[in-house]
Amino acid sequence: MGRHIFVTHSPEKTIELGRRIARQLRPPVVVLLIGELGAGKTTLAKGLVAGLGAASEEEVTSPTFTLVHEYGSASENAQRVYHVDLYRVETPRDLETLGLEDLMAERAVVLVEWGEKLGPAFRAPWLAGRLVEIHLEAANDTERRIEFHSPDETSRSGRAKRSDAGNQKKGA
Ligand SMILES: Nc1ncnc2c1ncn2[C@@H]1O[C@H](COP(=O)(O)OP(=O)(O)OP(=O)(O)O)[C@@H](O)[C@H]1O
Ligand SMILES: [Mg+2]
User: Fold this and answer.
1) Which of 2, 31, 108, 139 has its CA 20 to 30 A from that of 132?
2) Distance CA 117, CA 157 (A)
3) Which residue's CA is the nearest one to ligand 1's atom 8?
């Protein structure tokens, strides 16, 4: 898959892009959604969850207050998707606390908003090749730049940048 850059001009186009990216995902996989407040992480998640067939895009809402939403549990055959929001997490949350390893054993897709807050946990050897990074940036009110790194790419580059990005505060 490598590295891809997309530009969208509406929330609907971002959802559509999420649906397309979903087709490339091979569970178990962790998808880090990295970008500022309002960058479009939840909007893209709507498309990813819908594209994976786990729920409709309307059912996907921000897990800001609950930390994690689960989709796809209603049907035996549906892809299980966990949607995590680490915004309120103060210190780097380790994979053990999140139970990420168990979710991976379920062959789930785990979407993580503010994914950079996972901290050094990124380096867990068992995650190698199972990590997709998506960086989102608002160019203006309606334009979003969305950069996608596939597992192979992620395992080779970009480590240092991530830990720096973890300390930002929303609305500060
Ligand atoms: N091209 C676009 N793609 C996605 N969202 C867009 C776009 N243009 C405008 N928007 C608006 O930007 C906002 C994105 O909000 P969203 O909740 O997806 O961001 P977020 O990154 O999840 O924010 P938070 O950090 O609060 O979780 C929405 O209000 C959406 O309507
Ligand atoms: Mg969000």
Assistant:
1) 139
2) 18
3) 142
Instruction: State the pTM of this model.
Output: 0.87
The more confident residue out of 43 and 129 is 43
Assigned token pair, 159: 């480590």
Contact 164, 142 (CB under 8 A): no
Which of the residue ranges 5-9, 24-28, 58-62, 128-132 would you say has the lowest mean pLDDT?
128-132
Task: Identify the CATH homologous superfamily for domain 3-144.
Answer: P-loop containing nucleotide triphosphate hydrolases (3.40.50.300)
pLDDT of 162 strictly over 50: no
Distance (Å, whole) CA 33 – CA 41: 6
Residue ranges lining ligand 1, Cβ < 6 Å = 8-11, 13-14, 35, 37-43, 62, 113, 142, 144
User: Which residues sit with Cβ closer than 5 angstroms to ligand 2, an ion?
Assistant: 41-42, 62, 113
- Among 42, 83, 136, which residue has the most ligand 1 atoms within 8 Å of its CB, making it the best to mutate? 42
Q: Annotate 2-17 with three-state secondary structure.
A: CEEEEEECCHHHHHHH
CB 111 within 8 A of CB 41: no
User: CA 9, CA 81: separation in Å to the nearest integer?
Assistant: 26
